[in-house]
């Protein structure tokens, strides 16, 4: 048997860790690794057109599967392109291993062609970033990187000079069993008992849930029933907690709706469950607050806490619920449920008035029809900007659908590359990219990746020929919009020229059939929908301090749009309110 080189050993270890594909762009210093993949049937090389796409795709794959995913970039400019997608994966707690190929080891520090220092550059967006400068560091260094990514939830970066990759691997190098899943974290009895006492003493309890409630839906519902608590959520908590939820009061934040804001401010005990909600202007400062999080460094960094609980949500509630006295008074819960239904009834009227005849097409109408037609287990990837609003208000979660976006990092152009990663996981599952024209055109080259691999991603393009969220930011600052208008081509024609299905929709009556035709198509498809650039959004509560760093406007051109099927959910939940 021929002796392995470091690149072959590297690829073998990735495969043993469960990595099924490596996203990237080939090139010089990366060639030994790519060649090793060519000869290894356990792992696939996915050729994208831009390394930023590679990182976003790996991050989305990790979020869909919960397992380690990987990407790679060649030396210098190649691996530098990874950084934006890696920031997003890291902030989303997606376990991703990034390979940053490097210049020859003998030339490092001498200003060589394409020289950078990736082991330093990626430290801020990773748990672990180190360079293999000697073959004897393998396989221990790679195994350590994998365990950082999986164990801490986020990115690890391994820098590998091309000559080291091509060097013989050390003989009889020690390999150990890899950690490929994370354990449950249970709080101590002292914290559980303190929290139980606080809940028993409180009259009005509200739960505010984030992505840390994934896998804990049943436990949250059982606890909410026991303490008669309204349940609100942040954007990243929507897919995990809103469905089958008779205690739902909507979402808080700048994309919010319903009675969540009131429920978090009118309670006397607010419990933050698995959320690192960044907008502290939407959190109260005059009620008791408890935060439960599996990441201890996140406890208390958004608001002053009366109790910090280190543990994952499911295990915490399993321990907590039996120790809490069942409450019988539903007055606060019922009051919030009614406020929530009333709030949704109010805004839904703006959406229902002749919207199906409005030209240019209301984006709310597009999102509503899309929600109705998409599969019950569809994966939606959502571009940053106004598409976040439409996804938050119109996509209906059911426990099977997934909604992935750059919700913590806030990058443009994420939807298409994330759709690539999500679709590679399962070609038979419907994946829909809700793209804006600004985001789509930024990484449009990777639409060709869909065609090359015949990935059946459906791109629904909300084309308002503008950077809508940026226009809002300018309006808030009292500035005229400038540099926000896009002169767009016929994107559907570009899709057809690339060999995919493409259709352009300019009239509302065309939308339903266009989406159905695209969904029926077996390969990649793009639906270019010309939408109204004046259809913008405002949150349910506005304070001056909320304006900073985000888009708000109270001008007459703002449409406080509808809320899709959520109004039906609110009406249904009202049936739980006892009648006098």
General description of the model:
The chain folds into three domains: about 5-165, Rossmann fold (3-Layer(aba) Sandwich), CATH 3.40.50; about 190-340, TPP-binding domain (Rossmann fold, 3-Layer(aba) Sandwich); about 355-575, Rossmann fold, CATH 3.40.50.970. Strands 10-9-8-7-11-12-13 form a seven-stranded mixed sheet. Helix 3 runs parallel beside helix 5 and helix 10 (about 215-225) packs parallel to helix 13 (about 315-320). With about 575 residues, it is an alpha/beta fold. The protein has 23 helices and 19 strands.
Distance between termini?
A: 82 Å
CATH architecture of the largest domain: 3-Layer(aba) Sandwich
Instruction: Output the number of helix runs.
Output: 23
CATH-derived topology of the largest domain: Rossmann fold
Q: Catalogue the unreliable spans.
A: 537-542, 544-561
Question: What is the CATH first-level class name of the largest domain?
Answer: Alpha Beta
Gist of the model:
The protein is 37% helix and 16% strand.
Relevant terms:
single chain; 580 residues; alpha/beta; Rossmann fold; 3 domains; 7-stranded mixed sheet; 6-stranded parallel sheet; 23 helices; 19 strands; magnesium ion binding; POXB-like; THDP-binding
Topology record:
Layout: H1 6-16, E1 21-24, H2 31-38, E2 44-47, H3 51-65, E3 69-73, H4 77-80, H5 83-91, E4 96-102, H6 118-121, E5 128-131, H7 140-152, E6 155-161, H8 162-165, H9 189-201, E7 205-209, H10 217-227, E8 231-233, H11 238-241, E9 248-251, E10 257-258, H12 260-265, E11 269-273, E12 288-293, E13 307-310, H13 313-320, H14 331-352, H15 363-373, E14 379-382, H16 386-394, E15 402-405, H17 415-425, E16 431-436, H18 437-442, H19 447-453, E17 458-463, H20 468-476, H21 491-497, E18 501-505, H22 508-520, E19 525-530, H23 566-574
Parallel strand pairs: 1-2, 1-3, 3-4, 4-6, 5-6, 7-8, 7-11, 8-9, 11-12, 12-13, 14-15, 14-16, 16-17, 17-19, 18-19
Antiparallel strand pairs: 9-10
Helix pairs in contact: 1-2, 3-5, 3-17, 10-13, 14-23, 15-22
